[in-house]
Amino acid sequence: MTRACLVDVYDTIVNSRFESRQRDVAAFAGVDADLWLAGWMTTRTERDLGTLSVADSVAQALLACGIDPAPELVDTIVCKDAELLRQQVRVFDDSIPFLTGVRASGMAIALVSNCGDSTRALLDYLGLIPLADAVVLSCEVGSMKPSPDIYRTALEDLGVAAADAVMIDDQPGFCAGAEAVGVRAIQIVRPELDGQVSRSAFPLVRSLLDVPALL
Predict the structure, then answer these.
(1) How large is the C-alpha radius of gyration of the chain?
(2) Among 177, 115, 122, 175, residue whose Cα is nearest residue 146
(3) CA distances (Å), 71 to each of 47, 54, 84, 198, in order?
(4) Alpha-carbon distance 120 to 136, whole Å?
(5) Which of 106, 182, 185, 187 has a beta carbon 3.0–4.6 Å from 162's, enabling a disulfide?
(6) How far is the CA of 129 from the CAs of 89, 159, 171, 183, in angstroms?
(7) Rounded distance between C-alpha atoms, residue 164 and residue 68, angstroms
(8) How far apart are CA 173 and CA 171, in angstroms?
(9) Residues 6+ apart with CB under 8 A from 2
(10) Residues 140-169: what's their mean pLDDT?
(11) Is there a contact between 8 and 170 (Cβ–Cβ < 8 Å)?
(12) DSSP state of 169
C-alpha cells in the first residue's frame, strides 16, 4: 500500500523557467548571458549541496563574466533573482489539486528538491509548504538526488518505509535514485515543457492528475 509520495519541485509541480530567468538576471547585471549561465552552472553542485549560497554563486558568476563581485552588486542581483523567481515561477494547474487530493486520501507528502537556498522562500510565497508534511531541500540536508541520503531523509521525516512510498520526478536519473533505495518511481513528462519522451524505464505520466491511478 502506498502511504507516502515524495514529490520533486522544479518542472514537476512548478515551471522553473530556469534558463530564461537566468538570462533575465544576466540582462539586469549587464553581462553576457552565455557567460553568466556557464558561470552559474559551474557552482550548481555546491549550491545544491548548501556549501555555497546563492550569493556566493552570484559572485562566482560575476567573476566568470569579468566583473568585480562587489558586495553591493551581489546583494542587488540576489534580490533581483528572488524577485524574478516570484514573478516567473508558476505552479502547474494540476499541482495543487494533486497535492490536496493525495493528502485527503490519507497519504503523506514530502517535497524533495535539488535546489539552492532561495527555494524555501519561494515555496512559502507560492503557498506550497502547507500542502506537504515535509520539505526536504538538498541545500539544507547536504545531500542531493540521486544520492540515497536525500530519499532516506524524506522517508524518515514522513516515518514510512521505502516500500510504502513512491517518488514523482521529471528526471529519469532521480527516479532511478529513488528505486535504488526501494522507492517506486513515476516519471512525469510535461508536454508544455516540450517533453518528447515516448518510453521510459518507469511508469510515465503527463499530468499529476494521472498519478493517483498508479498508486
Answers:
(1) 18
(2) 177
(3) 18, 13, 20, 47
(4) 10
(5) 182
(6) 15, 18, 22, 22
(7) 51
(8) 5
(9) 107, 164, 165, 166, 184, 215
(10) 98
(11) yes
(12) E
Query: Under DSSP, is residue 44 helix (H, G, I), strand (E, B) or coil?
Result: helix
Average pLDDT for 87-107: 96
**Calpha distance 141→43 (Å, rounded):** 17
Provide the grid cell at 36.
553568466
Beta bridge partners of 113: 137
Q: Which residues pair with 4 in a beta bridge?
A: 108, 165
Q: Whole-angstrom Cα distance, residue 26 to residue 93?
A: 29
Contact yes or no for 206/12 (Cβ under 8 A)? no
* Strands in 11-126 per DSSP E: 14-15, 90-91, 108-113
Express each pLDDT in 111-141 by its tens digit: 999 999 999 999 999 999 999 999 999 999 9
Angle (CA) 126-56-89 rounded to 5° is 20
**Cell numbers placing 12:** 514537476
187 backbone φψ class: left, alpha, beta (φ>0; ψ -120 to 50): beta
